[in-house]
Amino acid sequence: MEGDSQRASASWENGTLAPGEHLRSDRADSPLPGLVEGTEPGAGQKSAMFVHAQSFEDLTAEAEEEVRREAEINKSGDGEEELKVLVGEKEQHSSDMTSESRTKEEDVTSEAWRSHRKHVFVLSDAGKPIYTRYGTEEALSSTMGVMMALVSVVEAEKNIIRSIQADGCKVVFLTKSPLVLVGVSRTCQSDKELLRELHYIYYQIVSLLTLTQLNNIFKNKQNYDLRRLLAGSEYLTDNLLTRLERDPGLLLSAVTCLPLASSTRDTVSSSLQAAKSKNLVFSILLAGDRLVTLLRKKDQFLHHIDLHLVFNLVGSSSSFREGEGWTPICLPKFNTAGFFHAHISYLEPASELCLILVSTDREDFFNMSDCKKRFMERLSKRSAYPALKEALKSPTYSVEQVGIPELRHFLYKSKSSGLYTSPEFPDVYKSDCEQERLMGLYQDLHSSLHHPTRPLRYVYRCGDTENLLAWVTSGFELYLCFSPLGTKALAVAAVTKLLKWIRKEEDRLFILSPLTY
Amino acid sequence: MSAMRVDAKVVMLGKESVGKTSLVERYVHHRFLVGPYQNTIGAAFVAKPIQVGEKVITLGIWDTAGSERYEAMSRIYYRGARAAIVCYDLTDGSSFQRARFWVKELQNCEEHCKIYLCGSKSDLISQDRSLRQIDYHDAQDFADEIGAQHFETSSKTGTNVDELFQKVAEDYNSNAFQEMKPEETSVDLSQKKDSYFYSCCHNN
Q: Model ipTM?
């Protein structure tokens, strides 16, 4: 088992994403869990759309290499006490200077502030606050100073601080010079999961500025206040953090599609394909948080992290609803050095359908505007637009359609396509609080499947409120949620049945034939 | 969207949160959105036809983001603009400094662009005079000095908003027949191909 998982991740290390041709030849009608990547339900037929489609490992691999090089620091016992003393002391200090100045913002000395489940802080190498999820940066400057001190002290011994386990609370550090990111969590997520989330925040910042600009700024002025440049973007980071808690796509490193008849999807894709332009690299059509189609230049692949950043940008702002947006955006997994320029517009002001055209040329606005116009014309001419609008009315499906009585919810990810599918939350999980709880359970399972040293292939867990099964193979990742009355035998039988159902519906649920220009 | 000919490029400039987007929103959609402040990402473009005498002139309005982050990009938005609406917040002194910066920038880089100085949020002043940070006459003096038109507007009530854009369109109309350098003519969405004439100095 150990060997298997090693092999599976090793085969992706060279960075190519399309599975070997020999793997695609046979697509079994009744897929069995023994499927290899490229033949599982939902796998693309021609080529995949994303880079490193199963790149959960890819996301954290870099950080892990550092660990291999440097000895891991286990700061327990003394270290823990030390931190408490330091933090306690510092927070007393900050209370003096902040108590009068802030009324609207949350009081960082209050119990409420301390008891948030997850804090995220971003600071510069010089210890200057850049972002905090709760409270204001000014009020936390001394606390962030302590964080920086911890990083520096360990660095002075030619080592890297990774995490601190304190009582009921975990502190994870990510040093990405010139930035330092710190997560403080009361959840039971593993270090690796928390680190993954910090990486997302890091990429969010890079996507606004580019790494080149970031480095230049701090090279010229070490104690620069980066908040000046990030002003007005805090809500993007806030929203990304909420997404990390709610959106299965960020957990699975995958994207979900709008269920759509394959003939309609093909028409939409080919209409978009026809509206090409010299500098156009990616065309993305979204319906809310769901992908309708994605076109790319040949040999250029989009990374799902970059796509999630685009989703976040579009979803966080209502300003694209009117007129046409034109914004520089860095796609950090593509290239951290430069900006792309994105033309963002909704097909209609009240529509959910948003078209994003990514160009390399910052003067390309009117070309992109013209591409959109051509796409719309073609779409109407081939009368795919009404069908597309019809599909928007049912952007999701209920789990009953699968026909497995005890099954409440599931997440299924096809590894080779980087796409996942999931039914709507049933009534039991309709509330935000219940949804987050279920997502938390999935996250736990995910942690177990992707444990850095002891990854599991199957997990079955019985609880008071639900039973869960998670299963990872080289082709797919599957998370199932059953009613607490279900049995293990039933759960195992459900897997085959579910896979058969997904195979039957894959035309509608996945993008099987992605196009290029 | 149907093919639309844009006659005059108009660019909105000014410090963040002075209300550039609200001004455009009021003018184009006749509404004022109440809600948490949302900054513009990059820039937004909207084309708006306006009646001037017998003629219909289409303004292509570029609503730019005020954030410093996008400053390096601003050149592409004001290049070739026939009018720039430089906004400042009547209740924020620093926004006027920023407006001076933009005026200087335009004078240096875009001498054919007409400048309209616009003090925003005048409804706040009429509610409470003590909120005013920028004296009307100081702003007017500055406008005279740079040869700009000066308006005080409220996007919330709509005061002076239509007047501002009407003035922009009228000025364009009366200057339209004056000689202009060819590459500064308006952008034509429907007949892009014809512009190959002077395309050697652009990268399209």
A: 0.83
